[in-house]
Amino acid sequence: MAEVKISNLEQDGEVRPFHAHGRLTLGSAGGMTLGMGSFEPGWRWSEDVKPLAGTDSCQVHHLGYVMSGAMGIRLSDGTETEIHAGEIVDIPAGHDAWVVGDKTCTILDTSPDATAYAVGAAKRVAPYADANVAAVRAGYAAFNDQDIPGLMAVLAPDCVQHVPGKSQIAGDYQGVEAVLGYYGKIGELTEGSFRADLLETHSDGKDHVTAVHQITASRNGVTRVSRGSIVFTFVDGRATDLVEMHADLAGDDAFFA
């Protein structure tokens, strides 16, 4: 029987204090997990969370909403930006961060990775090295950057991508050139606005990786945001079979009609 699940974040949540200058409160209700980070003036990831994380940079992918204050972000490639109250943010893994100004920065984080934030050494488990997961991450980055050599480094020459549905893009694309042609077609149909942002990866530790993503695209004056996944099969380090899954296949078909 269906039921509404409720949890009070302040009363029921797990509080994870930083080394100094704030805390993360993590709570869940059914399938919803939410982290609320309270970053006080003077907070800096490399000083207040790094001792807990044990990594050189923050390896958590954040998907959040800034409720108050401001924060500076520096990515591993040196790119810097600031985020402010009222903004929705997607911060990739591999960054340092610090509070800007004299006001506490409060951020709500809905990322599945939030459960791994500010975990002490006693609870921390090092992830397995997985070359196929790394290849999937590289493939998504190459797709969004329209990096053809990067895509070809991930896809096997005889790869096949299976696209379900009834729209003009549905079908089986056999061979890397056909798959790249498919990517080009969806780019043309959306005037270059199509993005697939990777949310999380699931691996069997062998030859299969499932990638869960969020699609954003605009076409004929309509912007669509939907979720889906791709099941990758790898042989000798290259993706040979890609099976697309859609959370709302009928809606995606209508968008590409």
Structure, explained:
This protein is globular. A hairpin with a 4-residue loop joins strand 1 and strand 2. It is of the alpha+beta class and 257 residues long. The strands form 3 sheets. Strands 1-2-3-9-4-7 form a 6-stranded antiparallel beta sheet. It has a 6-stranded mixed beta sheet with strand order 11-10-15-14-13-12. It has 2 domains: 9-116, Jelly Rolls (Sandwich), CATH 2.60.120.10; 131-255, Roll (Nuclear Transport Factor 2, Chain: A). The chain has helices spanning 9-12, 45-48, 50-53, 131-144, 148-154, 176-189, 249-255, and strands spanning 14-17, 22-29, 32-39, 62-68, 70-75, 80-84, 88-91, 95-100, 105-109, 155-163, 171-174, 195-203, 208-219, 222-235, 238-246. The model has no long low-confidence stretch (mean pLDDT 95). 21% of the residues lie in helices and 43% in strands. The chain has 7 helices and 15 strands. The two termini are 37 Å apart.
Summarize the structure.
This protein is α+β, with helices and mostly antiparallel strands.
What's the main sheet like?
A: 6 strands, antiparallel
- For the record, the count of structural domains works out to 2
CATH topology of the largest domain: Nuclear Transport Factor 2, Chain: A
**Overall residue-averaged pLDDT value:** 95
Second CATH tier, the architecture of the largest domain: Roll
Terminal-residue CA separation: 37 Å
Helix-strand makeup class: alpha+beta
What is the helix fraction of residues, given as a range? 10-25%
Query: How many extended strands?
Result: 15
Stretches where pLDDT is under 50 for at least 5 consecutive residues are none
